């Protein structure tokens, strides 16, 4: 993504149940800044039916708007609990197509650093999660997409506190 006001943008990307939300919150606290929650969770929990391609496009656009608003409160760094590559991969997996808007905006909204969460944590069931047996598959797709845009990224492994420490080490290495 284009930097605004010299804010470093860091996105967490990875398969379901790999602690992206937990990490985003912990990292924002560690760096005394803000994080943007995954809007899809709130949006999908309100739906009374199965989500559609239009829903995913709406979620993606609203996610970027939430991030834009959060930038005003950010202190040097902002953490995004999700980003457009996840929307692209999800659309392609579920609907075999991705809206042009999502594909076109991935490069335009490229982050300074991506933290790619490896699926080495136990699966935690959740009504919104769909793929307990395909996490490596999605991990590989996300890494392929990051390479395609020549993104700066670090692979994040480990359990609980070690996972947070690994994120901090990757961020500090990137920053300094």
What key attributes describe this structure?
12% strand, alpha/beta, 51% helix, single chain, Rossmann fold, 5-stranded parallel sheet, 176 residues
Biggest β-sheet, characterized?
5 strands, parallel
- Helical residues, percent: 40-55%
Which strand order spans the largest sheet, edge to edge or round the barrel? 2-3-1-4-5
Count structural domains: 1
How large is the count of helical segments?
7
Q: What shape does the CA trace take?
A: globular
Oligomer: single chain
Rg, Å, rounded = 15 Å
How would you state the average pLDDT, rounded?
93
- What distance separates the N and C termini? 20 Å
**Could you say what the CATH topology is called?**
Rossmann fold
CATH homologous superfamily title: P-loop containing nucleotide triphosphate hydrolases
Structural class: alpha/beta
Topology pattern, helix = H, strand = E: EHEHHEHHEHEH
CATH architecture: 3-Layer(aba) Sandwich
The level-1 CATH class: Alpha Beta
Strand content: 5-15%
- As residue ranges, the low-confidence spans are none
Beta-strand segment tally: 5
Would you write up a description of this structure?
It is a single chain. 51% of the residues lie in helices and 12% in strands. It is globular and about 45 Å long. Helix 1 (20-30) crosses helix 7 (160-175). The protein contains 7 helices and 5 strands; from the N terminus they run E-H-E-H-H-E-H-H-E-H-E-H. It starts with 7 loop residues before the first strand and ends with a helix. It has 176 residues and is of the alpha/beta class. Strands 2-3-1-4-5 form a 5-stranded parallel beta sheet, sandwiched between helices. The protein has a single domain (8-175), classed as 3-Layer(aba) Sandwich (Rossmann fold).
């Amino acid at each position: 993504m284009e930097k605004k006001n010299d804010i470093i943008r860091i996105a967490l990307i990875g398969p379901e149940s790999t602690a992206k939300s937990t990490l985003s919150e912990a990292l924002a606290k560690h760096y005394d800044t803000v994080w943007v929650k995954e809007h899809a969770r709130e949006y999908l929990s309100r739906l009374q039916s199965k989500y559609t391609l239009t829903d995913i496009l709406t979620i993606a656009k609203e996610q970027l708007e939430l991030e834009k608003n959060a930038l005003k409160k950010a202190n040097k760094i902002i953490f995004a609990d999700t980003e457009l590559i996840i929307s692209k991969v999800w659309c392609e997996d579920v609907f075999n197509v991705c809206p042009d808007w999502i594909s076109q905006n991935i490069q335009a909204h490229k982050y300074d650093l991506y933290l790619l969460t490896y699926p080495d944590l136990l699966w935690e069931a959740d009504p919104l999660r769909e793929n307990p047996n395909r996490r490596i598959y999605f991990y590989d797709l996300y890494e392929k997409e990051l390479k395609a845009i020549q993104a700066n990224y670090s692979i994040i492994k480990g359990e609980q506190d070690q996972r947070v420490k690994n994120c901090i080490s990757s961020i500090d290495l990137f920053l300094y």
